[in-house]
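Service request form, structural biology core

Requester: graduate student, group of Dr. S.
Request type: structure prediction, single chain
Budget code: on file
Notes: please return the result as C-alpha cells.

Sequence provided:
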Amino acid sequence: MFTIAILKDEDPLLTLERERIVEWAPANGWQYIEYADAVDLLARLTDLNAESIREVEIVAHGNPAECDDIRLESVRTLGESLRRVNGFSRATVVYLSGCNTGLQFGGDCVARFLAESAQATVCGARGYLAGTHAERNERCVASFSHAGIMYEAYDDAIDASGDDVWRRFGPPLKAANGDDMEIKISTSGFRPVNLTGEKAAQLRNAVEEAIQQPAAEPAPFRIAPDLRFAIRLSDGEHIFELLAGGTVLRDPVTRRVWQLRGGRALLESLWPFRNGAMPAA
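Core staff response, request fulfilled:
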C-alpha cells in the first residue's frame, strides 16, 4: 500500500495540496488520509489495517526539527508507535514532505531521529520543498527570494528535483535496549524566560525594526517555524515566529513576513529554549 497523509490545517497552501491530491490519489494507486495531529495520524494508519505499507508520505510544513506535529520531543514515541501499526515494517519508507526536514540545524534532524526510532527508512527534504514524492513532481531549492524577502539556506541545502530532493536515513543496525520507562507530557503556551537586558533589548529592537518595513506575502513553500516566541512591544504583547534559520520573521495571525536582520544570531541565542514552552521577553 502507498499512503499519502496531509495535515488538517486551514493554511491556504495545504488546502490547495489537499484539494489536488484528494482527487489524484485514488486514481493513481495511493491511499489518501487526513490527520489532525501525530496521534490521529497513527490512528488513521492503523484503521487501514494494511498487510504491507510500502510508502507513507506526510505532507506538512517542515524545518530540520519538525514536520508539523512530528517534533523532536515526541518523535521517539511516534517512531516506536509506528512499528506497531499493521503493515509497517523495516521495509516501509517514510517521506517527511516538508521544507528542510532532511537537513540539520543545531544538531537536530527530525528525519534522522524518526528513522532511528521507527527502525525504518525515512527521507527528508534537502531544501525548501514544493510538490510531492507521490506525484513525482518534487523539487527543492537551497534558498530563495519571494516578495522581496530572502529565505536563507540551512547547511548542506541544495537545488534539486526528483529523487535528488531527498536525504535518506536508514534504521539502526541494532535497536537500543534499556530498562527505564519514560512518560512524556507535552505542554502548550508560553513560559516566561528572563533574558539579560542586552539580549532582550537586542531582540525587541530587531523585531521593531523589521515590522516597520513593508510586510510581504508568505512564500509558496511548506515551511515550519524554527521557533515561536512572545514579546511585549509598545502596543502590547505579540506572538512571532522565526523561519529560514532565523532570517525571516512571521506573524502567525496575519501570515505576513519580514526580513529579520541578524536573525540567525538571535535564533541561536534563543535556541536553548526550543524544546520546552517557548520563551517570552
